[in-house]
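User: Hi! I'm working on a homework problem where we have to compare a predicted structure to a textbook description. Could you give me the structure for the chain below?
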Amino acid sequence: MSEVTEDRYADFYTRQLASPTLARIYREVYGDDHPEELRPFGFVTRTDLARFADLLALRPGELLVDVGCGRGGPGVSLARGAGARLLGLDPVESAVRGARELSVTLGLPEARFEIGGFTETGLGDASCDAVLSVDALWMVWNKRAAFAEMARILRPGGRLVFSTWEPGYLDHAKMLVRAGFTVTAKEEAHRWLERQLEVYRLVLQEADTLREELGPGAPVLLAEARDTPATLPDTPRYIIAATL
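Assistant: Happy to help. Predicted structure tokens:
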């Protein structure tokens, strides 16, 4: 199998920006904490981004690699704010195309976006200063291989910061230690559960409209909104940071 469960969000990324209803749902649930200008798909907030910035501690000219970057907005925002360089990697071609367009709109046209992922970045040993991943690691089957790849591409002293959901049978901190990292932070994201559940409730409430707006991109979103809520109380969304 591929390193991710499947490229099931490819059609969604192609159609995401054609859905005013989905954009309205996120605005309604997150209010001013929603970084709408970044066009994110998922649950990243301005509060999350501020915490990512603190933990990454990027310096001008450093290279940030955003793995599973999607449309790329969070990585662009963080790199632009710090004067860092950015390389985004994602296995979904439509997401990479969207990231290239969005980086120009957001004022970071020199950012690069390529096809790639957690276990096969295509980067050299010790070639980057920091790695970011926002809500993408949960899709990776072989997380040990992913952390080994992050350790390989980071320079000594490099920082890894990511957000993800952690079911009871997983312990990301222990896997990071085995890969050679020192874990520096592991904390639940601010108000993540109540807001994620509300997004899903509204998605299902607007299912017919979303089918019209998203076309072939709708089924994966609706399945997520239907199947995920029951698992969330036992699957906290963490922000985790580690250094090499």
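For your comparison, note the following. Residues 1-6 have pLDDT under 50 and may be disordered. The chain is about 40% helix and 20% strand. Good luck with the assignment!
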